[in-house]
Amino acid sequence: MNRAGVYIHVPFCRSRCSYCDFATGAYEGALAERYVRALAREIESFTRVEGRAEVDTVYFGGGTPSLLTPAQVSYVLEAVRRRFDVGVRAEVTLEMNPGTVTPDGLRALRDAGVSRASFGAQTFDDRELKRLGRTHTADDTRRTFDALRGAGFDDVSLDLIAGLPRQTLESWARNLEEALRLRPEHLSLYLLEVHEGTPLAEQIRAGRYDEPDPDLAAEMYRLMVERTRAEGFEQYEISNFCVAGRESRHNMKYWTGAPYFGFGCSAHSFDGGLTRWSNERDALAYVRSVEEEGAAVVTLDELDERAAGAEALFLGLRLLGRGVDLSEHRARYRRDVRADYAADLARFGEAGLLRFDGDVLRLTPEGALLSNEVFSAFV
């Protein structure tokens, strides 16, 4: 986990989903080509780490990275390999939306070095997809999954969202069963979050849809935990489930404090110590900045050890099996968690949300469901 990861942000989408608050915009071929060239230049001009740092994960996120051509993905990957020492067994993930890839395109992505696919089904109910503003259908998801297998992808992650507008516990159960029948190696199962400024937030405010029901969301969460466990999946993180050995190696870096270097608009980076930085959010402004200066960094933050330790604490608690080893935490951040948060730890312990196993602090199953309440004590 000490090796770095590289994150590549691709901001283009066919259309904007109603719940999305990421830095995305409509796909334009000319801008996409300029953007890819800018990505390669930013990567090759990267100076915040000397030498060819070892990298064992590369993650293309977005947006919809699968809207890029395989040649464009390959072009960016080659820039990464020139700048960093990318291991031969590196996990290279590409996010994709159903219906945005072809069998030939998937084979070309495999040839370029993409080893893992993460794609957003979100739901297998076409009515729910329409409410979200998604452009694909449930059949597109099934065909894309079959195409991935046909192209040789043996590491596939599938996303679903629970608590969608007008979604019932029964329809959520059907979604889970369909996903489990496909037998992906990894499942990311999220509870819907409504972000201010998104179309969904406006639709709820206008009375078109009800506010999410927290009691229903809790039932959905408990059902997902129960059904995935019954099918042999490990819940290694609050919202992530996998068959043995198929955790997202890249996302583990975020949760364990490993360094990661982000490229592209709105991308964030962390040096593994106390320094964070982030890029210009607007795609066109990012491209212009890189074309003129070779970089597009707009924020640079130096954390103190207390802030870094608090962040490491709540990120580490997301890993349900692993938890946080407080002796290791104390050695790294020079903070005594038991002393710093004595009242909160006692309160959450009495409520059954946290537990100690020796010097390891973990969320309980109920604590995982109410994790935001727990984490707020450490932020």
Short description:
Helices cover 42% and strands 23% of the residues. It has helices at 29-44, 70-83, 103-112, 126-132, 138-150, 169-182, 199-205, 214-230, 249-256, 283-293, 305-317, 326-333, 337-340, 342-350, 365-369, 371-375; strands spanning 4-10, 12-13, 25-26, 54-62, 85-96, 116-122, 156-162, 186-191, 234-237, 240-242, 260-263, 268-270, 275-279, 297-302, 324-325, 354-357, 360-363.
Could you walk me through the main structural features you see in this protein, from its secondary elements to its overall organization?
With 379 residues, the protein is of the alpha/beta class. The chain has 2 domains: 4-255, Alpha-Beta Barrel (TIM Barrel); 324-375, no CATH class. The chain is 42% helix and 23% strand. Strands 9-10-8-7-6-5-4-1-11 form a 9-stranded mixed beta sheet, sandwiched between helices. Strand 5 (85-96), helix 3 and strand 6 (116-122) form a beta-alpha-beta unit. Helix 1 packs across helix 10 (283-293) and helix 6 (169-182) packs parallel to helix 8 (214-230). The radius of gyration is 21 Å and the shape is globular.
Provide the helix percentage.
40-55%
> In CATH's first tier, which class of the largest domain applies?
Alpha Beta
Radius of gyration: 21 Å
- Structural class computed from helices and strand pairing: alpha/beta
Largest sheet: 9 strands, mixed
Number of strands: 17
Task: Compute the number of helices.
Answer: 16
- Strand fraction equals 15-25%
CATH topology of the largest domain: TIM Barrel
Instruction: Order the strands across the largest sheet as they lie in space.
Output: 9-10-8-7-6-5-4-1-11
Residue windows where pLDDT falls under 50 for at least 5 positions: none
In CATH, the homologous superfamily of the largest domain goes by the name: Aldolase class I
Distance between the termini: 24 Å
